[in-house]
Every structure is written in structure tokens, then in C-alpha cells.
Amino acid sequence: MSPFDFGALLLLAAAVIGVVNDRWIGLPQPVSLLVGSLGFSLGLLAIDPLLPRHYLIAMARNALSTTVLPHVLLDGVLAFLLFAASLHVSLEELRTNKWTIFGLATGGVMLSTLIFGALIWLAFQAGPEPVPLKWCFVLGAILAPTDAVVVDGVLRRVSLPASLKAAISGESLFNDGVGVVIFLVALSAAQGATGVVGHGVVAAQLLVESAGGGLIGVATGFLAATAMHRVRSYNVKLTISLALVLVTYRLAQTLGVSGPIAVVAAGLLVGNQKRRRSGDDAESADIAAFWGLVDELLNAMLFLLIGFQMLIVEVSRVQIVAVIASIPLALIARAASISIPMLVLSIRTHDRGRGAAVLTWAGMRGGISVALALTLPETPYREALLTVCYAVVVFSIVVQGLTMPRLIRWLAVPASRT
Q1: Which domain holds residue 170?
Q2: CATH code for the domain of 299
Q3: pLDDT > 80? residue 400
Q4: Mind spelling out the 3-state secondary structure of the chain?
Q5: pLDDT for position 154
Q6: Residue 146 in contact with residue 349, Cβ under 8 Å?
Q7: Residue 315 included in any domain
Q8: 322 assigned to some structural domain
Q9: For residue 37, is it within any domain?
Q10: Number of separate domains in the chain
Q11: Taking residues 136-144, what's their average pLDDT?
């Protein structure tokens, strides 16, 4: 099966699940796509032993291997998703909450990596095949960044104070770049590299990649916004925006800085400049609608692929104790990575306790975690790390995503306040 054929099947599955969900179920679209693909995967796993030659699972696994999901996501799809999510974020709100976002997107990611890595290492010790601590830190880095796409979808369905919403969306936009850097450092250390940790190496690398990515994004975003303002053709403006995303991302990667942060910076600049200019309201709405469609289509493909990844898990090798423990441990690590930066930096929200609770539950993982997990090399621990990653991702998207509005009502968080 070619990647084109597999893409056609994914779109067909997205359409079928979308119709069923829209007519009879009514779940948020990302959740419905993930649940639908999980159900299909589990169905195949259930009936495959009844078939004489196990063709179904073999064909599905072969198709999934040809999609090269991690490279497609990390080198292309992620750039479009981050750009689409950043277009409608207020730069003024980000400035107002800059220290909250900085603390959560840097120190919070590092704390989450260390805390979850240590806790899941203890859980693995109870299983038949313990995983070394260094590989548990790799898993911690995989699950540390929240997913901007998932978070953005949830924030559209809830009412929160402007400052808290800006903190959640800002963190999810910027911590992807930080998370990728920490993952690469942790992976190098786990594979035996020396000199990648200690003496400020990680901090220096984060500073260079983040600052460099931000500068490139601002420069390319300014050039693109200026060009879009000076042309009248709507199609040309869309072409400029598409070129901006890919060129910015690839240029940043070529120069050795953060592609995700570069794209986010470009999207923030373009989106906010267009909102400040008068007379472009209809045109801005059209461009936003186009990127909204791109976002929806890529989202559909992404969440289906996450669900179908269940087919590549070797069920017989799943470590049940670690999988069950991973969900509460991920929440504990998230809560600590939120609370400690808030205390150290004296970050204040409208209500620190309720704000920390909302930020903890809003820490949903998604495609970036799955993509990073799938880039893991073949080791005796890869299957265990993948399974835990999938468990946390599925729980965060389905359970946390569906219960977020109820949590906000239960905590009596005020609807809107600047």
C-alpha cells in the first residue's frame, strides 16, 4: 500500500467517523477521531487471531510503517499546525503573561521530564523488565511538552480569564520547541554521549535554539506580513503564508535553531499585524478560515494516526503496572512542574490554587509526543516506552479533554476577566 493510498483511507475514515459522530454521538472532533480509530484498531486486534494467516494486522502494520509518521509530523505537519494555532493568539496577552509562559515552557518542561522520569522508573522496577533510569528520562522528555493543537481545541470550548487562557495557549505553543531540545539531549545521554549534560550545556542550547528560532520567525514573519499587505490578490496572500511556514521551519532547522519556535513567532507576528490594520477584516477572516480548514484536515489525519498506532504495540510485552501507574504519575509530574515555577517566580494568577489546577488538567499531550516516541531507536526498552506514551496521550486527549469544561465549572473559575 502506497502512502497515497493510506492517506486516502485515512480521509475516508475521518469522513465516516465524522458523520457518525455528528449525527449520533456529538463528541469533540479530535476525541471522536481518536476514539474511532482506537476502536477500529482494537477490533482488528480482536479478530486477527481468528483469521488463518493474520493478514489484517500485518497489512496494517506495513501501511503504518510506510507513512514515516514521526518525520512527516516533525518536519512538516507540525509547522502548519503551530502556525495555524498561533494566528489567533493575542501578542498583547502573551506580553502580559510573559513570565508565566517563560517559566512553564522552560523550567516546567525540565521539571516534568525529571519528575516523571524518576517516578516511572520506580514503576518499571515492579515489572518483569525494568527500564534504566536514563531511558525513563527520555520518556519524561517525550511527555513533557503539551500539544498546542489539542489545547487550542479545548480552549475554544471553555470560558476562562484572559490571563489564564493566554498562559495555557502560550505555554503549549512554546514548549514544543523546548521539549524537542530536551528530548534530543536526553536521548544522546541515554545512548552514551558525554558532555551533553552539566556545566550549563542544556541551558545554553535552549537559549541559542529558542532565541535563534524567535529571531528567524520575527524576521520572516515581518517580511511576509509586509508582502501580504502590499498585494491585492487573495490567492497570492495565501501562497505567501504557505511559503512562510515551510521556509521558516526549514531555515531554522538548517541553521540549527528551533523550527517550532520560529514558526510560532512568525504566526504571532502575521496574525497580530493583520488584526491591527483596518480595512482587512473580511480578508483576515478568509485567511483565518483557510488556515482553520488546514488545521481541521491535518488534525483529522493526526488523531487517526495516533489511534491506529495501537496496532504496532506488541500486547504480550506490555508492562501493565507501568502503564496503569503512568497516568497518575504524569498528572503528579505536571502538577509539580506547574506549582514549582509559580512559587519560584512568584507567578500570580487570578487565583493561584485554581489556576494551578486548571493548568495541570490542561496539560494534554498529543501528536508531538507520539512523533518523538516513534523516533526512538530499536532497543529492548522501546516497546515499553511507546506503550506508556500512548496510554498517557490517549488519557489526556479523551479524559482530560472531555472533562475540562466540567472541571472549570466545579472550580467556579470566572468566565472572562482581563
Answers
A1: 66-411
A2: 1.20.1530.20
A3: yes
A4: CCHHHHHHHHHHHHHHHHHHHHHHHCCCHHHHHHHHHHHHHHHHHHHHHHCCCCHHHHHHHHHHHHCCHHHHHHHHHHHHHHHHHHCCCCHHHHHHCHHHHHHHHHHHHHHHHHHHHHHHHHHHHCCCCCCCHHHHHHHHHHHCCCCHHHHHHHHCCCCCCHHHHHHHHHHHHHHHHHHHHHHHHHHHHHCCCCCCCCCCHHHHHHHHHHHHHHHHHHHHHHHHHHHHHHCCCHHHHHHHHHHHHHHHHHHHHHCCCCHHHHHHHHHHHHHHHHHHCCCCHHHHHHHHHHHHHHHHHHHHHHHHHHHHHHHHCCHHHCCHHHHHHHHHHHHHHHHHHHHHHHHHCCCCCCCHHHHHHHHHHCCCCCHHHHHHHHCCCCCCCHHHHHHHHHHHHHHHHHHHHHHHHHHHHHHCCCCCCC
A5: 78
A6: no
A7: yes
A8: yes
A9: no
A10: 1
A11: 95
Question: Residue 344: pLDDT band by 50, 70, 90 thresholds?
Answer: confident
**pLDDT of res. 41:** 85
In this predicted model, what pLDDT tens digit does every residue of 149-190 receive, in sequence order?
778 777 777 777 877 888 888 888 898 889 988 998 999 999
Residue 196 lies in a domain: yes
25-57 per-position pLDDT tens digit: 988 888 888 899 998 888 877 887 776 665 666
